[in-house]
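Q: Here's a chain of 262 amino acids. Please give me its 3D structure as tokens.
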Amino acid sequence: FILFIFYFFLFPYKTEKEIYFTPARVYNMKAEPHNLLNAGNMETSESFYFRLGDTFGYLDKDGNLLYSEKVLYNVALSDYGYINYSSIQNAYQSLVLKDTSGHYVQSFSIPGYPFFSRHGKRLFIIKTDATGIREISFDGEELWKAEFTSLITSFAANEDYTILGLVNGMIKVYTKTGECMYNVKMEEGRLSAVYSAALSNDTKTMAVIAGLDPQHLFFFKRGNAHYHNPVNQRIKDELRRPAFTGYTEEDKYLLYETGTGL
């Protein structure tokens, strides 16, 4: 036993690099919400959002609960406001945009499912049959739209570009004016559907998960005119549903979901 201890310290076994998380703060989700000072203000925000199961809301930088609400069917969240919506979408039902304290900002008589860009400064509506998308301003003005013969299966946007992945394996990248500046069809696997997409803050890189049997993570870099030279990595534990893919805040790391973890 003593020899084993000496051996352990003299010839330590090198383990693989791991990433682990430690709690930074603990929040009381049952506390009474505070009121935000800037009610109805979609321009500035000193809060960040959360979603835990069927509850979502906002916390300030000190950890105080500013607002919370139950999810109806799904909710589109941003640092500036949210849209909580039901599963039934039709021409007679409005999508209601509220600020981070739950105050009314604007309503849109547009059937579809809402999505915000990465930092919440752009708003998109995907058609209920997933065959089209439009970007609208917070005042309800339509900025651009695009329609397809194939279903939209993934979406990502930052302040300059929008990525759409389709069930037929097509990837399309749009500018803020709605111009399609890049498109490519993924031909990987028995099925070529695009399951996830992510776009870096600086728009220099993007990543998608596409294909099935086999499934790959594709990494693109942007050149002078468009994205090119995808580097791919096989995903052994495949997902047969939309997956999570996203960059960390400073674009230092890319996180993506597999069938067994992150």
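Q: Can you summarize the key feature?
A: The first strand starts at residue 47 and ends at 52.
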